[in-house]
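Researcher: Good morning. I'm working through a list of sequences from a screen, and I'd like to move beyond sequence-only analysis. For each chain I'm collecting a predicted structure so we can compare shapes side by side. This is the next one on the list. No need for commentary yet; just the structure.
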Amino acid sequence: MKKTRDLERTRKEILDAAFMEVFSRGFQGVSIDDIVKKTTLTKGAFYHIFPTKLDLGYALVDDVIKPMIIERWIHPLNEYENPLEGILKQLKTLIGKAPAEELKLGCPLNNLVQEMAPVDEGFHERLQIALNLWISEMDKQLKRAQKEGYIKKDMNTRQVAHFVVMAHEGFYGMLKGLNDKRAFDALYDSLRIYFQGISQ
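Model: Good morning. Structure tokens for this chain:
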């Protein structure tokens, strides 16, 4: 049991360090040495957990980014009778109120989609699964909103879920590119008006 706990602790330390390095510099811009330097571990300990850098990258998607999507963008919606209100609230909290230096980095998921999906099939498959997880979980929340009478009965909630997830990623991309937090208000108001249009 102790060995298992030690391995889990080592794995978490590597993933935590790697996430911040990759988030700020890109997967291809970071070396294993860069990551090891941010831990208390040796390179040998790193390779014991992750035989290759790609193994680490895949684990970042599966074990860090996917749970982060659920924790940040899905679970909080359960606190709202109307999930549409929760979506707008989370956007304002996590993007609208985020520090400018954080927004410059963009979205960890979207960054990897742009950087790695075109060049590595393993990344592409895992990132696709992560995006579909987000869309499917968002669809469940929207179906709940529709059942409770907050969304028009004729709306295709799966299509709305696709649009909402694309809007999230678009928010990050535009704010990263423009480097102007004021743009958030225009993006936010556009999504709010869209929600008004699908509400009943």
